[in-house]
């Protein structure tokens, strides 16, 4: 039996309505992130970020039992992002940070870690980026040196979501070759308690637990190696391929909320003796926002279905990520404008959305990287045809 995603999202939405204030109220970012995790864990919803086979939610009818359903993840992220960004983040990071284990870990490692992540008892993080390795991951320089029974890892990762609150890192390191070589990379699972692992936090413009993860000769046993040496890049990219569409879905959720805020404000606010909603220019804006959001949503649905069904989704995913995140930024900007001064005042919903949505055009492949992917496919196909 296929799960009824609409019914699930409606349940999630009703519950998330009340949590908005509770998570946000006067706590530190880490406390708020933990509350968001606990909220999802209590209701079993973190399970949607982990395959059913290893303790995840029952996604029968949507994808194979050893996969994460992108359709389900997208539906949930859209719903959660509409209410509270930290809820959305808490859900997806459990998947991003653990999916490499589901794909390439030993059975023992999968059984030990994945059910814990699905239940929210262990928090996951995904560590690829370095100072010199951003869009170009072949520049990864964090070094994994062979030791008896495992690896010694030295280097530093940056912009790592959940750094400091994570219990588990899946991390890309270089076992062979030099920065710039695509080969020679390996993925490793590293628990946060590993000796020599240090976290240095920093802040970004919106609520987001993030920081640098420094590895001072951290010992990683062979049991925690994910896949073979040389497979690291492909494994890391396969994680992104699975989860990238859901960034687009979150963008749609943020944009939907911004549009709702605009509709409400324009109806309430009177200037020049009548509600702003009677001004034709602003009405055109609402129509444009609505249409672009719907177009983004359709691209997300198309991409998510293709990924779940195992088709070649590269272009569909790139289109969805590019269009939805750029659209959401534009929509949130319009919503700020509709609110006038109130739009930039700390504490208003649209002010928060404007900040929250910005990073989505950068992480998991920037908009420019999505354009490169799309253009490459177009040019390759044209060459094959001629
Ligand atoms: C909030 C947030 C959370 C993040 N979380 C994580 C995480 O959990 N784990 C993790 O590993 N990383 C994470 N990242 C890092 C993120 O994936 C990188 O920031 C992203 O890949 C871009 O890399 P960069 O910042 O080094 O930018 P750069 O690669 O230096 O790019 C700078 C600019 O140049 C453009 N550019 C680069 N190459 C080209 C090209 N060939 N053609 C045209 N334009 C190009 C880019 O699109 C961008 O606009 C996060 C980032 C943010 C902001």
Question: What tags apply to this protein structure?
Answer:
four-stranded mixed β-sheet; Butyryl-CoA Dehydrogenase, subunit A, domain 2; Butyryl-CoA Dehydrogenase, subunit A, domain 3; globular; 3 domains; alpha+beta; 51% helix; Butyryl-Coa Dehydrogenase, subunit A, domain 1; 386 residues; four-stranded antiparallel β-sheet; binds flavin-adenine dinucleotide; 10 strands
Topology, element by element:
Elements: H1 5-24, H2 29-42, H3 70-83, H4 85-96, H5 99-104, H6 107-118, E1 124-127, E2 143-147, E3 150-161, E4 168-174, E5 185-191, E6 197-201, E7 210-221, E8 225-226, H7 232-268, E9 270-271, E10 274-275, H8 280-308, H9 314-338, H10 349-358, H11 367-385
Parallel strand pairs: 1-4
Antiparallel strand pairs: 2-3, 3-7, 4-5, 5-8, 6-7, 9-10
Helix pairs in contact: 1-3, 2-4, 3-4, 3-7, 4-7, 7-8, 7-9, 7-10, 8-9, 9-10, 9-11
Flavin-adenine dinucleotide is lined by residues 126-129, 134-135, 159-161, 204, 208, 210, 359, 362-363, 366, 368-369, 372.
């Amino acid at each position: 039996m296929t799960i009824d995603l609409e019914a699930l999202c409606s349940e999630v939405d009703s519950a998330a309505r009340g949590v908005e204030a509770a998570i946000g109220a006067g706590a530190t970012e880490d406390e708020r992130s933990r509350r968001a995790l606990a909220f999802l864990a209590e209701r079993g919803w973190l399970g949607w970020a982990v395959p059913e086979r290893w303790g995840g939610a029952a996604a029968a009818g949507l994808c194979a039992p050893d996969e994460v359903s992108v359709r389900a993840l997208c539906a949930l992220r859209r719903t959660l992002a509409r209410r509270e960004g930290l809820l959305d983040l808490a859900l997806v990071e459990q998947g991003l940070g653990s999916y490499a284990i589901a794909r390439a870990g030993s059975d023992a490692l999968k059984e030990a870690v994945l059910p814990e992540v699905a239940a929210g008892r262990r928090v996951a993080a995904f560590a690829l980026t370095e100072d010199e390795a951003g869009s170009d991951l072949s520049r990864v320089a964090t070094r994994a040196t062979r030791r008896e029974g495992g690896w010694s890892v030295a280097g530093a990762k940056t912009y790592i979501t959940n750094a400091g609150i994570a219990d588990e890192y899946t991390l890309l390191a270089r076992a062979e070759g030099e920065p710039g070589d695509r080969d020679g990379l390996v993925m490793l699972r590293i628990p946060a308690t590993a000796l020599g692992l240090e976290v240095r936090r920093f802040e970004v413009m919106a609520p987001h637990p993030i920081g640098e993860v420094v590895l001072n000769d951290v010992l990683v046993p062979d049991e925690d190696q994910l896949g073979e040496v040389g497979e690291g890049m492909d494994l890391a990219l396969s994680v992104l391929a699975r989860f990238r569409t859901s960034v687009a879905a979150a963008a749609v959720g943020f944009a939907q909320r911004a549009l709702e805020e605009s509709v409400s404000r324009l109806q309430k606010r009177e200037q020049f003796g009548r509600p702003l909603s009677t001004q034709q220019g602003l009405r055109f804006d609402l129509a444009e926002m609505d249409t672009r959001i719907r177009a983004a949503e359709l691209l997300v649905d198309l991409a998510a279905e293709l990924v779940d069904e195992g088709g070649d989704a590269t272009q569909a995913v790139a289109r969805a990520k590019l269009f939805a995140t750029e659209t959401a930024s534009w929509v949130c900007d319009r919503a700020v404008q509709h609110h006038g001064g109130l739009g930039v005042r700390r504490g208003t919903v649209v002010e928060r959305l404007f900040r929250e949505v910005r990073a989505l055009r950068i992480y998991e492949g920037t908009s420019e990287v999505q354009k490169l992917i799309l253009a490459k496919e177009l040019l390759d196909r044209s060459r094959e045809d001629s």
